[in-house]
Amino acid sequence: MGWSQAGGERDVPMSTAVVEAIAAAERVDPVYLDPPLHEVIDADALDAMFEGTLSAGVVAFEYGAYRVRAHDDGRVELRRPAEPPLE
What we know:
globular, 24% strand
């Protein structure tokens, strides 16, 4: 499966954008995500990396079944790694 994109808005904290993207992909309300994002990554640090106009770059991490890439323009990309091949 390729990367799916969400967001692209810098008016919400990056941690919120990530939670909303994963919840949308899972078709659940964000409050039902398990584990909560803050148990997987430091959400405050993630937000701080993308605050202000000088932020630049991409942060990548894994959350549950997803590989997540958070971009400085507010985009969030999600990818489910392919199942390992059967032997």
